[in-house]
Amino acid sequence: TPLVTIANVDMRYGGTGGTLAVKDLTLDVGKGEFAAVVGPSGCGKSTLMKLVTGLHMPQAGTVTVNGERVTKPVSIVGMAFQNPTMLPWRTTLDNILLPLEIVEKHRKRLRANKAEYVAKAEKLLETVGLKGFGQKFPWQLSGGMQQRANLCRALIHEPELLMLDEPFGALDSFTREELWCVIRDLHAAQGVTIILVTHDLREATFLADKIFVMSSRPGRILQERRVPFPRPRE
Ligand code: ADP
Ligand code: ADP
After folding, report:
1. Considering every ligand atom, which ligand is closest to the CA of 164?
2. How high is the pLDDT of residue 220?
3. Rounded mean pLDDT of the chain?
4. Which of 78, 74, 58, 57 is nearest to 66 (CA)?
5. From the record, what ranges are coiled-coil (predicted)?
6. ipTM of the complex
7. Which among 118, 183, 195 has a CA at the least distance from the CA of 150?
8. Which of 50, 62, 45, 49 is nearest to 10 (CA)?
9. Which residue, by CA, sits nearest to atom 10 of ligand 2?
10. Could you give the CA distance from residue 37 to residue 162 in angstroms, rounded to a whole number?
């Protein structure tokens, strides 16, 4: 069953006569699937992410997440974007707890049992190779470390859907491939549905079960490919 369905969506910025960012976009991503979206800069990848998360509303067509038409920001989603956006006055750990403070359901649980969530955040930090860095402030971390912490923040509320928009962008190739393995293992272990936007085809084939190729204009899906062979698992 699909978790995310985009059907015949048009999205234009700036009203009539503005930029047509995506046109007649149709795709679906099944529960537990790892999908990648690739395509050149400006083809509408970020727009697609914002449509799924409910940050933008389409002018035509429908976006459905978990059987519900998206009409406002979706709370079952974890997001990590290219530029880490950690609050500089909070420690890394308190940044990771941030999504819990936004959703009322979690806010109550956080108040009732903070220790449980702190332990969880620390476990996530360990998973991404940042054990013991929770008390550092973001500006005390390198860019790559901030991106890792960003991933922890996207995962703290155990989202059903994880949206990753070039989350490995500014990383050196060694750290990047290390993080690929972290993400791949997370997907294998937790069964979370993932949509990854990237312009790195190697990254897409390494990670995803299914790859959508978008054309430069006007943001249609050109091809849908199943990754044809099992990926290496070390
Ligand atoms: P990608 O993520 O693939 O680079 P985007 O979704 O960011 O593509 O952009 C798709 C098109 O929409 C581009 O032509 C871009 O310039 C335009 N666009 C994106 N965001 C806005 C915006 N807020 N206002 C106007 N045009 C935008
Ligand atoms: P990405 O690297 O994710 O493709 P972009 O560099 O295309 O992002 O855009 C960065 C941000 O600026 C996005 O949030 C996008 O919505 C916005 N943006 C992109 N193009 C335009 C535009 N022509 N006018 C206004 N905002 C834009």
Report:
1. 2
2. 66
3. 87
4. 74
5. 100-127
6. 0.66
7. 183
8. 62
9. 46
10. 13
Query: In this structure, are residues 37 and 212 in contact, taking their beta carbons and an 8 Å threshold?
Result: yes
Dmax (CA) for the chain in angstroms is 52
Instruction: Count CB-CB contacts under 10 A for residue 213.
Output: 17
DSSP 87-153: -TTS-HHHHHTHHHHHSHHHHHHHHH-HHHHHHHHHHHHHHTT-TT-TTS-GGGS-HHHHHHHHHHH
pLDDT tens-place string over residues 112-155: 999 999 999 999 999 888 999 999 999 999 888 998 899 999 98
**What does the alpha-carbon distance between residue 225 and residue 46 come to, in Å, rounded to a whole number?**
20
Cβ 212 vs Cβ 224: under 8 Å = yes
Task: Write out the two tokens for 25.
Answer: 């976009």
Cβ–Cβ < 8 Å for 87, 138: yes
